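Input sequence (268 aa), recorded before submission:
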Amino acid sequence: MPQKLSKYFSMSVTEAEADIFIFGDIVDPVWQELDASWGITSETSGYSLSKDLQKLDPAVTRINVHINSYGGDVAEGLAIHNLLKQHKAKVATVVEGFACSAASVVFMAGDERFMNCASLLMVHNAWTYAKGNAEQLRKQADDLETITQASINAYMARVSIDENKVKELMDAESWILPADAVAMGFATGTVEEAENTGKAAASARQSVMQALSTRPQAVPQFDMQALADALAARIKESAPPIPEAAPIAVPENKPFNFLKALMGGKEI
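Predicted structure, token format:
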């Protein structure tokens, strides 16, 4: 029986923020189902992502997409890119390791696009296996150029360089470092810059770690005697006045008065 592998595609939701982790290949949903029957759940498809996005609470206003993938199926990469761009929530994409080929297209879906200092972006032209006669092979070559253009369009919606430069990078199967990705507009910044400048961070994990690492403020000290005196004065002011006690009547001692009269008013 094949060993069941870990699931590298997942989604977690905390309040108004969702985190999607694409840590594996981007594949056709048919292949994903076949692999799942063997216990392999490390792939992502446009279909699987769409089902998870549909389950998201409408209160979610931010989606963080963490990417570490060599890429895969172009059609699925484009579908994931478009699904994320169409979502009403703000999308932040983060390269946690590699974002290659179709995964680099997914990366471009972010309104904010962050790269870690130790990460790489890789772009190249679409490719396929081919067979057939000369005419069929020529047609496949033309089709590949058209398919590649769809990825170029995704890049061009974000980058600050011209289309010819993008094509040169793809022809050369280029690996792009974070600083170069930011300079050319593939990325909007790095995770480290976001943390250091206090700008919007790209990960809920970063927010949690920042909260845990922040030293608590000192507990204010109180003058307890002054507090007690003030409380006593307040109670005294608000207490109702105590009514004055009536004088106590002393009963008359008639025998004593009689004897006093006999003595002529002298003290006994």
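Checked by second reader. The domain at 9-213 is CATH 3.90.226.10 (2-enoyl-CoA Hydratase; Chain A, domain 1).
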